[in-house]
Amino acid sequence: MRASLRALVVALAVAGAALAVPALASAETTFCINADAVCPPGGEDRADLQIALDQAADTADHDVILLGDKQTPYFGPFTYEPVALSKFNGVTIKGVGGRPSLTAGVGDTIITGHKASLERVDIFADLPEGLAADLDAGDLTDVKVTGPASFHPDLNGIAVTGPSKLDHVEIDGGYQTALTVKGGGLAGREVTAHGLTIQGPDEGIVLEQSADFQASRFRVDAVGAGIVSTGFVNIAAGVVTTSGPGSVGLLQPEPSEGNFELDHVTVAHVGQPNGNDSALLLRAAQPLDTRLHAVAISGYTRGFRRPFVNGAPPENVVITDSAWDPSHDELEHDTGVFVEQRNSHVAPDVVNVAGGDLHPRAGSSAIDRDQLTDLAQFTDLEGVAALDGDGDGIARPDAGAFEFRPAQPEPGTGGGNGAPAKDVSAPVLRKLRIVRRPKLRLAFTASEAATVKIVPQRIVRGRAAKARKPIVRHVSAGRGSVALARALRRAGLLRAGTVRLSVVATDAAGNRSPKRVLRLGIS
After folding, report:
1. Spatial CA neighbour of 55 closest among 76, 82, 95, 88
2. Res. 489 pLDDT band, cuts 50 70 90
3. Integer Cα distance of 140 and 167 in angstroms
4. Could you give the C-alpha distances from 259 to 241, 245, 266, 352, in angstroms and in order?
5. In this predicted structure, what is the pLDDT of residue 280?
6. Which of 36, 261, 290, 499 has the fewest CB atoms within 10 Å, counting from its CB?
7. Which residues are within 8 A (CB) of 374 and not within 5 positions of it... i.e. 6 or more apart?
8. What is the structure's pLDDT at 423?
């Protein structure tokens, strides 16, 4: 009798719960917006992105929105808040037929969402204030976030709360903070980044208390501070540069709960330091061990500053196989130990620190510094294997993100009959990008000396207007840049809107590179 009564009570409870919870669709849905032929059989056409997001939020599975490139941005703000918060409920917005973009009005957050992911979708945040994206447990893949060329203290890039993956994300513009990593506080809430590039903000990355950020093969180029953290930072194969006179590469602005762990990272000041600058400034909220391996520090007045704060616990530093000049370091009493192995106390000489070429020069103290890393597992930030840079017959990785490149003989110096071989290789412009600060320029790494031609065109109603006078410059092999601001101003293009830049490089033999097209948002 008791068993039958208990079964009846359970059945009534289940039925009541079913009546209390709104019914949710359970099948995964594909929504199509301007996707045309890309929309698969069974895909549901929608005219509006927010409508598709709202309908996806009412389903119980991870849905997909195929977003076509309509040549003008989709205007938000956009939000995605699933009715039922579960590990299965989420949405991915995938760009198709080009690179669609999102934007919104002044002061808005362009896209907000829990478990909302973007893939091949760009965000135009060329606004005086606002936030490009605020995402909780969402991933970004092949996403470019473009902000204004000048500094806007009330504008920020992306805020993410883990678990989140950022794969080949580019954040470019004069933000206060380009990327904010919010604290998760639990295992499995990490934010991981691969191929992340940040250029132009005052602060590159800010980690809130308890946040956990793990990055590989990434670059941060900021003005005031590269990474500001009270959380946990783990970086492998990366570059952190700052240009402000008193800037700091990696900063704990207040007592931090987390440490820094760096492996093959270059930290460089690329501006004019004023004596108040440091590569690392450390303050601990609990006993910490900051661990640095194969790190190269260049251009800063001091490598390390660890000030004494009354009552603060120590932050120990363990540094191996690294190169920097410690003559102006400030390691105050009772702030922790400083443990070293196989370091060079000579600032590593690089090709052109002010120009951003941070490859070691011949004879640099960074060359062949690393004695621990497995050669079979190592390539530098550019995919180059370890070389025997010091000529001792043993190949070892260099300290920092880049391997030394020995000078190579000029190509085409000998054919089979003693005549010069014909040059049939077109020049290649690698890492082609727009750099906004301190001066607006087109930056690249050229495979050989070439003439670079840049054709600017204003984008009007989604279409390219008449081409203006091209910008033509001769560049040398290696890292280089072409100034843009003066030429664009003379052409009347340096005003609010979007400018398309078509770039072609031609070498002395007449070989031409494929045309590359970039977009410059101007506020």
Report:
1. 82
2. confident
3. 6
4. 19, 25, 18, 30
5. 97
6. 36
7. none
8. 62
Q: Residues 41-77: pLDDT tens digits?
A: 999 999 999 999 999 999 888 999 999 999 899 999 9
> Alpha-carbon distance 309 to 511, whole Å?
61
Beta bridge pairs of residue 91:
63, 116
H/E run at residue 490: helix 485-490
CA 321 to CA 365: how far, in whole Å? 10
Contact 398, 371 (CB under 8 A): no
Cβ atoms of 162 and 139 closer than 8 Å: no
- Phi, psi angle pair for 475, to nearest 5°: -125, 155
Q: For residue 424, how far is the Cα from the chain centroid? A: 35
Question: What is 131-177 written as a DSSP string?
Answer: EEEEEES--EEEEEEE--SS--TEEEEEEEESSEEEEEEEEES--SE
Beta strands at 330-331 and 302-306: parallel, antiparallel or unpaired: parallel
Q: What is the mean pLDDT of residues 180-196?
A: 84
Q: What whole-number distance in Å separates Cα of residue 75 and Cα of residue 68?
A: 14
Cα–Cα distance for residue pair 481/475, rounded to 1 Å: 8
CA distances from 255 to 161, 248, 282, 291, 304 (A): 21, 16, 8, 17, 16
First to last CA, the chain: 76
**pLDDT at residue 469, rounded to an integer:** 86
| Dist CA 385 CA 378 (whole Å) | 6
Mean pLDDT score across all residues of the chain: 88
Tens digits of per-residue pLDDT, 121-137?
Answer: 999 999 999 999 999 99
Judge whether residue 346 has pLDDT over 80: yes
Please give the DSSP secondary-structure letter assigned to residue 512.
Answer: B
